[in-house]
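Request:
Um, any thoughts?
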Amino acid sequence: MELGRVLTAMATPFDREGEVDYDQAKRLALALLDSGSDGLVVAGTTGEAPTLSHDEKLALFREVKAAVGNRGAVIAGTGTNDTAVSIALSKEAEAVGVDALLLTAPYYSRPPQEGLYRHFQAIAAATSLPCILYNIPSRTAVNVTAETQLRLAEIPNIAGVKEASGDLDQIAEIIEGARDFRVWSGDDQMTLPIIAIGGYGVVGVSTHLVGLQMRTMIEAQLDGRGSEAATIHRRLLPLMKTLMTAAPNPIPLKYALNHVGFQVGGLRLPLIEADAAVAESVVAELSRHQIDLAVAV
């Protein structure tokens, strides 16, 4: 399946008891596809993966894929800081029918570059699915360098990277050096600069709310309408920044979704609900934007 340019790192809805609300997850998945997304990353950071059990992740993969069918790609977040666990979860995710895997750089253990290479190589070798690397040094404390990514790009089923290093020099080196290897922006506010230097798309958070507008921005840039793309980027930038900096992701996002009427419940500890200052900043920013997400009444 074509994975698409606009992917959303989907929030995981919880019910009042704090359990995964699978029915609402399916509704959210379909609503996102209706509002600009080509596909969904399930059980990523925005989906509170660190607090989801093994069984909850597999159930989410299964339920969301069953709801989505062939309408869009379902990309399972199966990467952890344990290679063996990542391999096992990746195999099970493939068995339940997902379309691709998102593999984060191992966090906390801070492996050297050769360790990173062997980690991703081992997971890719254990599955036939396309694999997307996830480079986010701010959370993992390790950067997957351009040199390492270009080595990994030679592995046939490593399809690309979600790049959240914020380093445009590194990203440009990857784009220049790799063939058939896609770079998705892992920072919403870096989407336009990355597209402008040859990147492919975005794995977004703000795409929950303004997915159609993000799609229009990307298409405008690709079609040579740079001024239009830049105008959209500038308009959306305050929202992108609020969702990522008002509090740790996905605290502002979940507050925003609940506020606009798409109920996703609370968060699991150690994340906590938005405080008054965060809530005020989110509501103020939402009031300045058209919301693309369809909310069932």
About this structure: Residues 221 and 229 are 5 Å apart (CA to CA).
